[in-house]
Amino acid sequence: MTAFPLLCTPLLISREIVRQLLPVEQVILSLCSKRARRLVKIHVITPENWKLLLVTNKQRRTAFESDKDHFDLLGIVPTSDNSNVKGTIRINGYTVPISWKMEYLVTHWDDINLGIRVVTEYCTDLYNTVVYILNVSKRREWVVDWIHERQKILYEVCHDGKFNEELLTRQLSHLNVDTMFYSFMKIPDTFRYSGKFPNPIRIGFDSGGWVTLENLLSMSSKHIEIGKSKFSEEDINRYLKIWMNGECSRLQYLAINMESVSLRKVIDGIQGATLINEERTFTWERDSDLYSPIPPVQISHGYNIVNVNGVMATVIEGWFLGPSICVCVWPDAHNNVF
Questions:
Q1: Which Pfam families does the annotation name (predicted)?
Q2: Is 298 in contact with 279 (CB distance < 8 Å)?
Q3: In 3D, which of 52, 86, 45 has the Cα closest to residue 66?
Q4: Which pLDDT tens digit goes with each residue over 67-126?
Q5: Rounded to whole angstroms, how far apart are CA atoms 302 and 306?
Q6: Fewer CB within 10 A of the end CB, N or C, for the chain?
């Protein structure tokens, strides 16, 4: 069989060939030579709904993610994992061993942190894109600041790193996050923070025992989730009364996991609260389904409250990491009203 001389074909033909390849095939082709890289770079078109994902846990890799598709691009493993090495490639000035895993190419590095940097830089340059979805694991906390410095903005951050007070304080106060900042980090209840929070559409903390009412009031995200909180019903009551006065106007959904939940105590003294026993579905939509997609909230019992701006919210006993108080502000993502 004779190899097809792609680099010698007319421009229109080579363009169509490149665009018919899967993303992983485009990456492999680009690594063949400098000419091949230029060919892919000038011809490739990335659909608008594809978002570049960077994962830094044991499955370290870059990938494209959309609502319906997932395409792994390049993996990153230590050189000690050399059982399936098939050869070497040249990538951004580095010669590294490679292997094949499932359906994507894996690069082997003496320095994993260097590998993450090089592979990320290669893929963002090849596709002329940014990292949209960032999965941060323990020992890779530096990646958040590095990506933020490169892009000046983060889009979706799923943070599972090791707790570091100085690092977390800096990231909370300085990060510019567009869509989501969700932390699975085990943050101790003794942690204290008094600054501003990132302002993404969605913000959440699995370990939220450190979050105070003042912290909650300073969050301006549309969707807020606080797990393992130390809030009392009286705290939530104060928050709702402040919302009733027109503050926290950006809020669309709030879920707070609490040690004890009494809806009556939460609503106590709130003027105009109306008991409801009607079934409703409250839908929250996000652009990405990658992390903790939010199912519709099924409402059958709760209280409707209306703030000074005429905005209605339904307060219910829900479930988020356990018994929770949930506040659903109407209309929902489908523009449904109660």
A1: FBA_2
A2: yes
A3: 52
A4: 788 999 999 999 987 778 889 999 999 999 999 888 899 999 999 999 999 999 999 999
A5: 13
A6: N
